[in-house]
Design brief:
The chain is an alpha+beta fold. The chain has a single domain, classed as K homology (KH) domain (GMP Synthetase, Chain A, domain 3, 2-Layer Sandwich), CATH 3.30.300.20. It is 49% helix and 30% strand. It has 3 helices and 3 strands; from the N terminus they run H-E-E-H-H-E. Strands 1-2-3 form a 3-stranded mixed β-sheet. The two termini are 21 Å apart. It holds the Pfam family KH_KhpA-B.
């Protein structure tokens, strides 16, 4: 999952300075995408469409892997 999120975000932004952290909290996998301020707009997209699409792809993969996930964005 971490590889999928890293692949998607680096190709959307063209920026290799993006980090994806994975934490396990009460059986839920929390993924935090840390990106520089100048590419946050690309990840969020118009009205949040891009981040919603990223979360949808992650949820689809989570269903296959039978895990609960949460995807968050944070500024570096």
């Amino acid at each position: 999952m971490k590889d999928l999120l890293t692949y998607i975000t680096t190709h959307i932004t063209g920026n290799k300075d993006i980090e994806v952290r994975e934490d396990l909290v009460d059986g839920m996998h929390e993924y935090t995408i840390s990106a520089p301020k100048d590419v946050m707009g690309l990840l969020i997209g118009k009205e949040g469409r891009t981040i919603r699409a990223i979360r949808s792809l992650a949820r689809a993969r989570a269903i296959v892997e039978r895990i609960n996930i949460s995807v968050k964005l944070e500024e570096k």
